[in-house]
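Both lines are given unchanged directly below:

***
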Amino acid sequence: MAVTDEAIEKIKGMIVSGALRPGDRLPKESELAAELGLSRNSLREAVRALSLIRILDVRQGDGTYVTSLDPQLLLEALSFVVDFHRDDTVLEFLAVRRILEPAATAMAALRISEQQLDALDAQLDKLGDAPSVEELVACDLEFHRGIVQSAGNSVLCSLLDGLSGPTTRARIWRGLTQEDAVAGTLREHRAILAALRDRDAEAARSWATVHIASVEQWLRSTL
């Protein structure tokens, strides 16, 4: 494993230094192994590991390339790891969301277009006043994703997208067991949207915090 780690570090060094840039094709395995002073087996293992986390793209019959290194692509690895969360860590994921999502919502208040606001409004109208819990949670995910995307920070968007998965089950559970949870969520969505329309970043931040904190508070009371 130590030899493979060394190989990973050397390839990483080539990418960080600019010797290999996004979209570049890696030299042939034998040439690269000789250049880096590695065995072909350790190089092969390193390439396999870096392809799993979307740093490299192995194309059968064509060669190995550096990916675009786009944040959304790289953070897919986060989503993969997050899927292995335990139920007792859901509160920790919610706490991270409570830090990041209100900030993204405040950023969105200053950047979101009228067209995007209208799309969010239509989304809520389509949901109606008495959706099923599953419909509400699906809408909730899309609603917040749309807001975060309009904040204009692809890294923040990808992070929050990866973190949203573990809290989905908690939101469904709350909707099924807590009285007025559905109505409360709809009111909070409307309040967030109103703050965005007013271009009031602090109100948008506050309502997003309330929205996430209400799920977190409920979950604490049930555990």
